[in-house]
Amino acid sequence: SKNAGRGVCSVFEPALDQAARDRAILDSELRCAVARREFVVHYQPIVDLRSGAVRTMEALVRWRHPTRGLVPPGEFIPFAEQSLLISQIGEFVLEQACADAAAWPRDVKVAVNVSPLQFRQSNMFATVARILERTGLAPGRLEIEITESLLMERAEATLATLQALRALGVSISLDDFGTGFSSLTYLRSFPFDKIKIDRAFTQAIGADPASHAIIDTIVALGSRLGMRVTAEGVENATQMRYLADIGCNEGQGYYFSHGRPADELDELLDAGKGR
Ligand code: C2E
Ligand code: CA
Ligand code: CA
Ligand code: CA
């Protein structure tokens, strides 16, 4: 193994087969990255389809790798989810996102993804309460995005934590809706504030009648249940207009903006004041 030279960590190079070796290297690199705070948080606007106003920014983590550049979360989050690293990365993102949002206009919220494993490993309620207090962000300006896989195990303890977060004023969104196994059951067991329709459905608008039927139904369902509905992955005006026409509350996607670093949000935050 070689010393990284900063005294905090070193990259471990064990003699194993190639795949195991790659995993071990990624694991030790990620540990170093946590210690060196090599993660950055980008923000993507979620737009009210009626007014065009930016109401929420979703926090999306990236790894500023010393040699590989900016690494997208799909390349390290699933791996981090196999160990305690996900909690350390997740807590960093939560704190950074709350600190950044505290400086935005008061009517713009921040949405933070929380991995099911992070949720179970740590005391989520205590962590969120402590971070809100430390950053001074009002609880009503934080949204937690979870996926239904969180509700598949230890559902009772999870529901109690979600209730407690809601009682504090934090809102809870159900992410990637439509991609799991038994979504409707979870809608019955917990009053989500928001449902996010997975981008697979949005991207089939204009091409696939079955996806239209599914989107129409989710929007109607959300409205009946008193939950806001956001469509993810809006990439063009056709999709945006279709969603606005059927009464979908919010859209998110490259049509509006990619994720951007915290210091490049001024123009988007001005849109938070409404148009
Ligand atoms: P997600 O929560 O579904 O986030 C939306 C992803 O879709 C983001 O990818 C975003 O950049 C991408 N996206 C947004 N608009 C469009 C569009 O119009 N077209 C297409 N094709 N893609 C669009 P990103 O940033 O690579 O994140 C991927 C996933 O990584 C996220 O999916 C989320 O599951 C996870 N992730 C990101 N940040 C965090 C985090 O801080 N903690 C945890 N636990 N997971 C995170
Ligand atoms: Ca999300
Ligand atoms: Ca999503
Ligand atoms: Ca996703």
Automatic annotation (TrEMBL):
Signal peptide: none annotated. Residues 23-273 form the EAL domain. Transmembrane segments: none annotated. This is EAL domain-containing protein. It comes from Methylocystis parvus. The chain holds residues 432 to 706 of 709 of the full protein.
